[in-house]
Write a structure and sequence with these properties.
alpha+beta; three-stranded antiparallel β-sheet; about 25% helix
């Protein structure tokens, strides 16, 4: 009778790994999805924080932080008023309008000291962006 007790113990110990292959596939896919969701695809950006300050009349100051996963030779920048990966040479040379930072109907002008750019809308409204 002692040998039958040992067999019963072994059966109870090994029952949980014998779950179906579908279960283990689901566990594997779930863990891969959790790992993958924390990473961006190469060449893409996402906005992490966006703060707006409208305390001054006729003026809104907005600050945003973006997280980018750029390819080799690219750096985080702005294209069509959205964060994007742009050629690093544009940022190094401070020729901001070459990365097409404004919307299609807006005009782009460099600031005098090349610290940023302005986007002028057809109605005359001006959005000024300075790079840190």
């Amino acid at each position: 009778m002692a040998s039958s007790r040992k067999l019963v113990r072994r059966r109870n110990v090994t029952t949980w790994p014998r779950m179906s292959s579908t279960f283990w596939a689901a566990v594997l896919l779930t863990s891969l999805l959790i790992i993958y969701c924390g990473q961006l695809a190469a060449g893409t950006c996402e906005i992490v924080t966006l703060d707006r300050d409208s305390s001054q009349p006729r003026r809104t100051i907005a600050r945003q932080t973006a997280r980018c996963a750029c390819k080799k030779g690219q750096i985080a920048g702005t294209t069509r008023a959205r964060p994007a990966c742009v050629d690093a040479l544009i940022v190094r040379s401070r020729q901001w309008c070459e990365m097409t930072p404004c919307l299609d109907d807006e005009g782009c002008d460099l600031l005098v000291n090349h610290s940023g750019w302005t986007c002028t809308q057809p109605g005359g409204r001006v959005k000024t962006t300075t790079a840190l």
